[in-house]
Amino acid sequence: MRKSVRIRECWKESLKIRMISAKSLFTLCAVVSVTLLIPDYALHAYQAPAKPDTEAKPVPEAHSSPAANLAAVAKPNYDPPPNLARTDLPAWPYPKGVHIEATPDDGKLYRIPGSSKTFTDTQINRLASSPDWFPDSHPTPPAPVITGKEGAYRACGECHLMNGAGKPDTARLQGLPVTYFLQQLEDMKNDKRHASVVRASITSMIPIAKSIDAADAKLAAEYFHSLPPFKSVRVVETDTVPVTHPGPHSVQLVERGATEPIGTRIIEIPEDAERTLLRDPSSGFIAYVPLGSIKRGEALARIGADKTGAGKTGAGKTIACTTCHGPNLKGMGDQFPGLAGASPTVAARQLYDFKSGTRDGKNAAAMKSVVATLTDQDIVDVAAYLASLQP
Fold it and tell me: What are the domain boundaries of the chain?
C-alpha cells in the first residue's frame, strides 16, 4: 500500500515537472516570437499612413532595405530626454515625413530641368551617397559631402543638398563660418543639442555628428563655407493656405483644391514637389506667412520692438537680431551665422529649441534671453521677415 502511494506521488511529481517544462518552453517561444516582431513594429508603428499625393507628379519612392531597417531599430534613440521633451509647441516648425515600403528598383532613369545627369531610384534614395545633378556649379565636393561613409554616416549632400541650400526639415549650410559649423557638430556629439519634440529632424543628425571624425567634419565645413548663399524661398503673405500632408523626405505635399486659414503658422511647400523629391538643389520653396507678419518681424529683428512699436526708446520686447548677426543680418564673425533669406521653418525651429532648452551649446545662453519673451506670433513674424531678405 505504501509502495503504491509512493508510486502515485512520484508519477504526480513527474507529470508536474513535464507540465512546468512545457509551460517554460511555450513562454520561451512566445518571448522569442515577440522579440523577432518588435523591430518591424517599432519601425512602422509610429508612421502615419501616407495619403495619396494628388498634387505632385509620380516620383521614385524613398526606400530602405530590411537589413537597414533592422540596423536603424538597433541604433540609440535620440529623441529628447523626458525632462526636455515638449508637447506644447506648434507642429509646423517640425515637419514630419512618411515611411514608404521598399519596392524593387525598375532601373528607370530620372532627369531634372537644366541637368544632363540621370540617376536611378537607387542612386537617389537608397545609397549613403548623394546625387550630384549639377557638378559644374560648385567646387569638387569632399567625400563626406557626396559619398558619406558606408556603415557610419550618410553624405551631407543627401539632406542638405549639394549646393547647401537645405530644406525646411534640415538647414541651409551655404557660407556658414567653419568655426560655427564645427561647433554645432561638437554640441550634438556632446549632447548639448537635442530635439524639442519626438521625431524631430535633428534626431537623424545627432548620430552623424557622433560618427563623423574631425578631419571629415572639417572638410565638409570648408566645402559648405565656400558656397555663397542664395535665396531659395519665395515668401507670400496670405490669410489662406493649401492643406498639406507629410510626404517622403519630410516634404509637405499639397492636397489638391483644399485650403484652410493660415492662423499663427508658416506653411512652407516645394515650388515643384517632383523635383524636390528627386533632391534637385535648384528647385526652391514657397513660404506662406500671415498678413502683416513681415512688417512686424522687421521691427522685432531690427530694434527689438513689438508690433505696437515698444522698444524704440531702449525698453524693447527683446534684443534686436542685428546686434549679433550684423546690420544686414548676413552674419558677423565666426560665431554668428547669416539669417537673411533662411527657411522660415528652420529659423522658427531654432528659436523654439533655444526657448525650450534643448539647444544648449556654445552661445545658447545669449539666445535664451533673446527668445524668452517671444510669443508664437513673434516667432512667426521674425521668421517671416528673415525669409523675405536677400542672403
Answer: 66-225, 233-388
